[in-house]
Amino acid sequence: MISLDLVRATNTRLVKAHPLVAVFVGAASGIGEFSVRALAAAHGTHGKGLRLYLVARNEAAAKKILVECLEVCPSGQFIFVKADDLSLLKNVDDVSAKIISLEEQEAKAKGETARIDFLVMCQGIVNFGYGRQETTEGLDITTSLLYYSRMRLILQLLPLLLTSSLPARVVSVFGPGTEKKGRENKIWPDDLSLRDPSHYGFINMGDQIAYMKTFFFEYVAKKYPGKISLIHYFPGLVITDAFHNKKNPRWFRWSVTLLRPVLGFVTVAREETGERVLFLASERFPARALKDESKLEEKGNHIGIAMSSDDVVGGGAYRVIWTGERIPTVPAYEKHRKDGLPEICVNHTLKAFEEIEAGRVFKD
Ligand SMILES: NC(=O)c1ccc[n+]([C@@H]2O[C@H](COP(=O)([O-])OP(=O)(O)OC[C@H]3O[C@@H](n4cnc5c(N)ncnc54)[C@H](OP(=O)(O)O)[C@@H]3O)[C@@H](O)[C@H]2O)c1
């Protein structure tokens, strides 16, 4: 486990070494909010410069957070970007265009290069068995928020991510590691959208998203070596508004309320959660090395360099648990890779984007 002291020291070093442009999506509550607050606090008055975009639907909540951030980080620039329902890719495209346009204006005014150094995506809902609900674009709402909308956002923001000199870190907060031993076959290459009701479910959806995100992140990391690092992050159990959502079954909400006194022992605290998300921007998670660079050594610095999902030290696509350590892939990945699943998943995703962009309803 990476100790919290080391996390804090690393975060302080980061903000003192680099001026940062950061984008947080789905950050008017929960883990996104904690991460925004952690970056503002770490930057404080001694950071090298911070421009932070908070993307959310809830304007009042977002603006309150940003006002409070400015109090702890008066030298920072905090910008709210209004989003609509991000389960629709059309809205993802619109908000991406807004972010690019705002960042180009802000950077130009300061004589800087427009860029994004740190992108953190937290948009999501907990779907406890209320089944597949389709968007007008043909995607399942829950899967779209947790997977398609996020992959689309990365591709749409690539022009700015690729100009980061950090290089850019992209974090998707959800849950790698559900595709455990014994669940190897819970992926259906000819039904990646889980349209068959017997395939759809809370656990299966988690597996499917974990597989697809692992393969999509590896695809992007390899396509842009030296430029972008992508991290699928499991934050541990963090008590947020998501647990009290009225859509969750009553038994679940009651359990959270009843167990509250003991939950403190098994949950990750809010402040620590934000600090650990910020740590993902550290040099422990570099972009994949360029071919002509010498192979990175695992103990290259005191926080080490992480092993990527495709078993390359510093390979650019990571699966990480809240302790800062790797969530390894299960042996089934080897077979799935041989069977061409990575290409099937990436092609499925790109086809969904192509169809929806062309105004058609995605049917695969
Ligand atoms: N908390 C945990 O223990 C835990 C554990 C594992 C994984 N995660 C993952 O971490 C992420 C954040 O969860 P959280 O616990 O911080 O929950 P949260 O506080 O409910 O945050 C989720 C965010 O997503 C936004 N959102 C929901 N539906 C949206 C939509 N249709 N369009 C745009 N934005 C939407 C919400 O914004 P609005 O306020 O506008 O609805 C909210 O700010 C989720 O993906 C969750 O699966 C959490």
TrEMBL record:
Q: Which domain of life is it from?
A: Eukaryota
Report what the protein is called: NAD(P)-binding protein
Q: SUPFAM superfamilies, from UniProt?
A: NAD(P)-binding Rossmann-fold domains
- Using the record, list the residue span of the signal peptide; answer none if the entry has no such feature: none
Taxonomy, top ranks, is: Eukaryota, Fungi, Dikarya, Ascomycota, Pezizomycotina
Query: Mind telling me which InterPro entries this protein's record contains?
Result: NAD(P)-bd_dom_sf (IPR036291), Sec_Metab_Biosynth_Oxidored (IPR052228)
Q: Which UniProt keywords apply?
A: Oxidoreductase
Which molecular function GO terms apply here?
oxidoreductase activity
